Known about the structure:
Layout: E1 3-4, E2 12-13, H1 14-38, H2 55-64, H3 68-78, H4 84-96, H5 101-104, H6 108-122, H7 128-143, H8 153-166, H9 169-174, H10 177-192, H11 197-202, H12 204-216, H13 220-224, H14 228-243, H15 255-280
Antiparallel strand pairs: 1-2
Helix pairs in contact: 2-4, 3-6, 4-6, 4-7, 6-8, 7-8, 7-10, 8-12, 10-12, 10-14, 14-15
Amino acid sequence: xxxxxxxxxxxxxxxAFQSVQLAIGTYRQPCQLLAARHFRPNSRPSSSNQVQPDGxxxxxxxxIAKSSEDLFDVVSDHKDRLDAVHAAAxxxxxxxxxxxxxxxxxxxxxxELLLLVDQHLTASVLGTRGLSNILVAIAHLxxxxxxxxxxxxxxxxxxxxxxxxFSDPKKLLRANAHDVANSAWAxxxxxxxxxxxxxxxxxxxxxxxxxxxGQELERKQxxxxxxxxxxxxxxxxxxxxxxxxxxxxxxxxxxxxxxIQQQQMLQRLFHMVAEAAIPKLQxxxxxxxxxxxxxxxxxxxxx
Length: 303
């Protein structure tokens, strides 16, 4: 009984066998931790060890995201490389994935995405297409909550900042019909989601944007560029906003004067919409009822 085990050509003395057992026991836990760290079967490879994707590839990663988790992975892995267009596209894509707002509120990846968009807004590098995409995305996200954007104050703040940026005269001059129609729809939709008239007054940037866009609709070339769907979105936006308590009135105006100005603006606007729509509806155009209250742009800005 002085020897145990078999090593092929001989046997191992008991004291040697016990020494091997002791060594295995001593180093088993560190080895297991090392293996778990470097060979986890379901872990994503570290982005630092991968070739960093270029801007085009980042657009593709955003576009093919099938869930909010996929999208948040893109933001987490590449947030230092996502430019303003990527940030707007991420928020747009998130709004199309259908995640309920209450499943997103309070989650760190969601807040990081909102912060990323806010940083690019602060830098004032977004064009009217990116700004309209952000407004529409926020309207879709807020619309999937029973309490609207009240569930997420950060969304309402972001929408107001975006509307203020869009209202810049230089940007308004560069806005095309597509961006004007979608931004008008989004601003009106967000106003309907405000829980009270007081909240609508606090979100005056949205009302300001509608008023400024209404002035831009005096441009004949812009009006002629609207699609039938765009005209429908514009008509819905102003009819809806004007029908809310307070309508499109501004606090610094006398009520009577403001009501007269609003009525005159709406008369001109609806006359313009009707006049521009007649040739576009021959032959009859089929409308998608869902799109009548939505927007048709995609992350890359194409209809």
